[in-house]
Design a protein that fits this description.
This protein is an alpha/beta fold. The protein is about 20% helix and about 25% strand.
Amino acid sequence: MPEKAMKVTFWGTRGSIAVPGRDTALYGGNTTCLQVELGTEETVIIDAGTGIRRLGERLLKENGHKSIHLLMTHVHWDHIIGFPFFGPALSSEIDMYVDGHPRCMNGLKHTFDTPMGGGFFPIRLEDIRARMTFLKTVSRKALELEGAVIDSMPLKHPQGSLGFRFRGGGRTFVFFTDNELRDEKEVDRYVRFCEGADLLIHDAQYTPEEIGTKQGWGHSDYEKALDLAHKAGVRRLVLFHHDPGHSDADLEGAEVLCREAVSGRGWDMTVEAAREDDTIVV
């Protein structure tokens, strides 16, 4: 297992559509993208939302990342739209391994063009110089990467989505975005998958007041995310995939309510909302 702790950095925390501006500066306006550092030379990225552009700039400046693993939860626009702007994809020195959702390669290709389109981007997928390999591993079995073990499970989301679990150095990190916590049998499966995790990052796009009109949209509210984390004995919960209509003030309010709930129920768990540029050491 990796000797160093895993580090998770948020490059995009928003769901549905990017919303830059003064009202979203604290928690971030870019869509989903995370960097997971395993304490090795491998660079692991989860999803290619708009946040991947700045991450790519950082990786090129550091000039030490020759092997990149891009794990895709699914291919909805907010999770793939940043890929054409990912600088390392244009470098012939980069080996890029893509894995995750079975349709992830088609989704990434379609950010450039589709058979029905007339060109969605000035360059073509064929102009990418990085050596891209589609692994087709983690959706079927555990992916072993430099001593860490990454596995997945299907989530409740229209057209499907995958959640990922990272285990290494005696620590466990679970990432569940775009997941609707509604069916009790499914929740029981999620509890088993997340059991004892040191860190759970979970979709909490809506408030409990909003969720009633959003049934079937494939997202959760923070109250249901809290309940899952408690049942699974999670040590730290991070609320994720912030709704584009929620301002920094809204998210600060949600944090306060969640912390009050945890304290009032006597649960041994910390909770916070994901903030762009923050790094969590697992």
